[in-house]
Fold Brix-domain-containing protein.
Amino acid sequence: MGSSKIKISSKSALPFRSNNKEKRKDFHLKQKLARAALKREQQFRRKKEEDRDPALREERRARNVPQTIDSKRVWDEYSGDEGDDLGLSVDVLRGAKRVKVGEAQEDEEDAALSESEAEEDAELEDDDVDSMLDEEEPKSDASESDPSTTRNPKKRPASSNPNPRATSPSGSTTSTNLNLAPEKLAQRYPTLFAPPPSEPKVLITTSINSTLHKEAELLTTLFPGSHYVPRSSHRYSHKYSICEISRFASSRGFHSLVILMEDQKRPSGLDIVHLPSGPMFHFTLTSFVSGSRIPGHGRPTNHYPELILNGFRTPLGLLTAHLFKTLFPAHPELQGRQVVTLHNQRDYIFLRRHRYVFREKRASEKSVVDAAGKAVKGVEDIRAGLQELGPSFTLKLRRVDAGVQRASGQVWEWRSRSEKARTRFQM
């Protein structure tokens, strides 16, 4: 006997009620198999149709874009009344593009208006030429002899345009506050946005009586030109404060101060002070992994690394990116093939250090593709290999102080707060 084909019951959407547990179990199992068979049949039918017409496959893939938290990100609308620019989630790059688009639109409108004015002037000139053929010649002669009534084609009367251009009822594209631009941030923080030195000096220390000496030594390999000074709390020693350490470092030519915080003998925070007078950034530090614990790790060299800053889009993000930019030399040594990446995603900054090498593409590998999924021209047969060097950790910005931290009365520029909306980010 041939096996009967499984079909979905018309009552599959209704709850199957039976006092017999085995019957309920058998019914739901059959319905599950029938739904799986129907779905598989639809997939094979769709595959055949897409093989005949590849455009259907491209259309389906373009339509089936997954929705993520990053794609649902919510941005703030800046009205110009807020005083704390760092607390606004505004895309600076998008605002700059909107300004350029608005300027281009205004230029087009001005060009169209000037063309219409030129056409009106040409029509008026034609009317003057035609009036010379009128029957009333003495009147035309009088008008020609009187210079006050002579029309100047270059000068347009004020009342010639009965419909002047009105203002737009909606907000203009050029209404973005310029305080969010990097130039305005540079005026607010001139020392941080100043041209960085060719070889910045970084002083690394820890919290009082810390045991994280090995982790602090690893940070000296991460930041070029850095020096580690232990911070003791001996009963007969002087317990230097952050202000005193900042004055000490600034007088000796250091440009930044990095403080590694400790909690239960583990790294828990990272405070960075831009010398000589701030600002001061407070980060929480998690997932600290040294290079020796990374599988297949490499050994870092003393070459200046390249710096990649990714995902910093808001004014606060740009400020943080400029802070990290001051910790690394402006001219990397490319022969070392080392790169430090600071990737911001959902307000978490992931720090990684790699060594890269360019090699030929293997037969089993795919070519490098762009954001649209198409192969990049010129590098079809080239691939890049990465080897992680370490250390790796994750940072989250908690507070930005106006100056160097004091014992009390600290003035902060920005601090994080608990956000109820999962789609709103600060950086």
